[in-house]
Amino acid sequence: MIDCHVHLWDPAQGFPWIRPGSELHRAFDEADLERSAEGLDLAGAILVEASRGDAGETLALRELRLRRPDLVSGYVANLHVHGAGGPGPFRTLLHELGDLGPSGMRLGGATWADTPEPARALVPVLAEAGTALELNLHRGALTAASDVADRHPGLTVVVDHLGNAPDPRTPAARDWYRDVERAAASPDVVVKISGLLTQQHGVERRRVAHMVRHVVDVLGPDRTLVGSDWPICLPRGSRADSLTASAPGLAHLTEDQRHRVLHTTAVRVYGLGG
């Protein structure tokens, strides 16, 4: 299994969103990541940026990938911090990073319209380079992913955390189910099953399983990934707890289909090469 969503950080280096005094307000390094994998049958992980706030985070992620390939199979860097330079310098950066360049670049915000325009201007460069765009939007992520993928044929767009799905017990869930079906019509949209412990905290397991199953059944195992969102998950459970939270929704799949969701699709989407 490849865990497609983990973070590392040190609050002393930035990361202003981490609240002082919280359980997460401490450094999480590669040794912590290694310990969190004990007892898990993992082939690697995708290290996702954590909004440090500067372009140096991209190089720091690359260094971790270079130093610990046994832990880090690939990394997703922050698109925002490269927007000011424009498409030309960003294109040059991707070229210079070469084979150890990012597996994806992440863009986040309340909605697509709220993301910085200079960062959005870099999306065509991602399409040229064959680097995935990853979206972490609070609202409308699935719809935005479909729109972007349709405007940029060949660009893989990965949607984090089931598209930041609403509580399935609320009326907003109807729109989410509809948006999943719309996303299925755009063949280059991929949905990451992650954030279940935090975003669906308190929701009955059967309801969460139904959401996971809906995503996998509608998009198919070749367009779904699984990630723990460690260490953000820790206030609600361990990395193992987070990864196994998706299991009931995958239980109906064949062994081959589960392998595609848990491993093969990540290799293709993130260009891991094996």
Give structural attributes.
274 residues, alpha/beta, eight-stranded parallel sheet, 13 helices
Set out the fold topology:
Blueprint: E1 2-6, H1 30-36, E2 44-48, H2 56-67, E3 72-78, H3 87-97, E4 104-109, H4 117-120, H5 123-129, E5 132-137, H6 141-151, E6 157-159, H7 161-164, H8 172-184, E7 189-193, H9 196-199, H10 205-219, E8 224-226, H11 239-244, H12 247-250, H13 255-269
Parallel strand pairs: 1-2, 2-3, 3-4, 4-5, 5-6, 6-7, 7-8
Helix pairs in contact: 3-5, 6-8, 8-10
Question: Can you put this structure into words, describing what you see?
Answer:
This protein starts with a strand and ends in a 5-residue tail after the last helix. It is an alpha/beta fold and 274 residues long. Strand 3 (72-78), helix 3 (87-97) and strand 4 (104-109) form a beta-alpha-beta unit. The protein has helices spanning 30-36, 56-67, 87-97, 117-120, 123-129, 141-151, 161-164, 172-184, 196-199, 205-219, 239-244, 247-250, 255-269; strands at 2-6, 44-48, 72-78, 104-109, 132-137, 157-159, 189-193, 224-226.
